[in-house]
Amino acid sequence: MASTSNSNTHEQVSSSSSLNWKERILLPTLLAGVAGGGAGLVSKHQKVHGLANICGTYATNFAIVTACYCGAREFVRASRTGKPDDLLNSAIGGFGSGAILGRLQGGQLGAVRYSVMFAVVGTTVDYATIRVKPALRSYYDSLVNKKDDWLKLPEWSPIQVLDEEALAAKRAREEELYRSVHNLKKES
């Protein structure tokens, strides 16, 4: 009986990780790519290398770093069978991905520097995301769930949202105008 509940828990964790990988890996990678492109726009190197080239380089580098970090964090989470909001997963994943990328970039000293930097920055960003996500979710829900009030046009706007009575009155005016125009054409 205990092995059945343990396997069910393991199946739930693995199915939730396979379903939410877009939210935990792909979305941050895409957002980092956009942020990298924006950083390339304000880079001092754009005059030397060209705007498109430097924006593409920054976007690619930011996306690669974020994908490595998020992938390592999710690997640690799956290995530890932890929750997605566990900050220890972020610290270990940041340390591991920073060590690998730092070793490729700057040797042993780079591995030490990058691992500490990735662990601190990644854990800080994940902590901030955990804190900000409920506020953003409630703001989004307040915008989406107000079906009538989500977009209010000012009264002076030439675009008017009409209810059933106003639509019926408008149709009646249009039909009257149509009849009067056709009567004028017949008389001429």
From TrEMBL:
Signal sequence extent: none
Domain of life: Eukaryota
GO biological process: one example: protein insertion into mitochondrial inner membrane
Keywords from the UniProt entry: Membrane, Transmembrane, Transmembrane helix
Main location (coarse class): membrane
Sample GO molecular function, one term: mitochondrion targeting sequence binding
Keyword Kinase: no
Keyword Membrane tagged: yes
GO cellular component: a single term: TIM22 mitochondrial import inner membrane insertion complex
Membrane topology according to the record: Multi-pass membrane protein
Annotated localization: Membrane
Entries under PANTHER family matching the protein: MITOCHONDRIAL IMPORT INNER MEMBRANE TRANSLOCASE SUBUNIT TIM22, OS04G0376100 PROTEIN
Name of the featured protein: Mitochondrial import inner membrane translocase subunit Tim17/Tim22/Tim23 family protein
Organism: Anisodus acutangulus
Lineage, highest ranks first: Eukaryota, Viridiplantae, Streptophyta, Embryophyta, Tracheophyta
